[in-house]
Amino acid sequence: xxxxxxxxxxxxxxxxxxxxxxxxxxxxxxxxxxxxxxxxxxxxxxxxxxxxxxxxxxxxxxxxxxxxxxxxxxxxxxxxxxxxxxxxxxxxxxxxxxxxxxxxxxxxxxxxxxxxxxxxxxxxxxxxxxxxxxxxxxxxxxxxxxxxxxxxxxxxxxxxxxxxxxxxxxxxxxxxxxxxxxxxxxxxxxxxxxxxxxxxxxxxxxxxxxxxxxxxxxxxxxxxxxxxxxxxxxxxxxxxxxxxxxxxxxxxxxxxxxxxxxxxxxxxxxxxxxxxxxxxxxxxxxxxxxxxxxxxxxxxxxxxxxxxxxxxxxxxxxxxxxxxxxxxxxxxxxxxxxxxxxxxxx
Length: 346
What we know:
Blueprint: H1 2-6, H2 10-24, H3 41-49, H4 65-78, H5 82-89, H6 93-110, H7 112-115, H8 121-135, E1 140-150, E2 170-177, E3 183-191, H9 196-202, H10 204-210, E4 222-228, E5 231-237, E6 240-242, E7 253-254, H11 265-290, H12 293-297, H13 302-321, H14 329-345
Parallel strand pairs: 1-6, 6-7
Antiparallel strand pairs: 1-2, 2-3, 4-5
Helix pairs in contact: 2-6, 4-6, 5-6, 6-13
């Protein structure tokens, strides 16, 4: 039931609930219920930071906290209209809207900064080793790419800004991914017409990389030897990012060679580069496969879609950390049955 409805197993659902249980017990949208005693902004901030206990709070929502989390995860995983699952949970459509905004705010505050972090220097050697174990490309620290999150835009002055080259309206999700398929940095919100390269140039991520805040050089640079004709060449390679043709070549970012001849060093590097960069595309596929709201809902508010995307990326990291499946178990049973029948035939 959990995987079919929420795209997470029961264990991961309980772990997500434990992370935000205290905050979900509070009505964060105090402007929608003026009849009840108001919670001040300082109390709300203290609640999000975990500085006050549940007994010290003055407002409690009538809907159970676990049910509100289930409503939100069902919306993120299915991407249906509010009315379609309001009847399923036995509440009004307006209550669904209220609970979604409240829970998304809590998840964004509690999970995003905790689940999406760039590897620290103490973890960098392990991250580089994980990438090298994939296909053999040394000194790769992270992979970068972007994808489109579709949306609906009403006709207006700025509607053409969100029109991408794939012939639909969208915003751009630019992400860094490690070898295990988890997001280490997320930039979302740029219009679809901008492109991946321009989104990276406008982001804070590029400025941090240029200042050397994310990819340290001291203590992580390795020296390699290779044969170039009759000469033996020594090179020093720092940790770098693998990227596609949409990004510009930089000291911290490597691209593949175009039309490299076969049986050459350039062709070997291109093969390893492409196979290594595939982890970020697989991460996007699992993200949209688990949270179908990112490809089916087509919301018309860019800011609301941006917040939902950030929350989905944080939840994706939690699911990947705990090895939570998102596909229906029926497919696994069918695959197992086909495998057993094939073994019996052989």
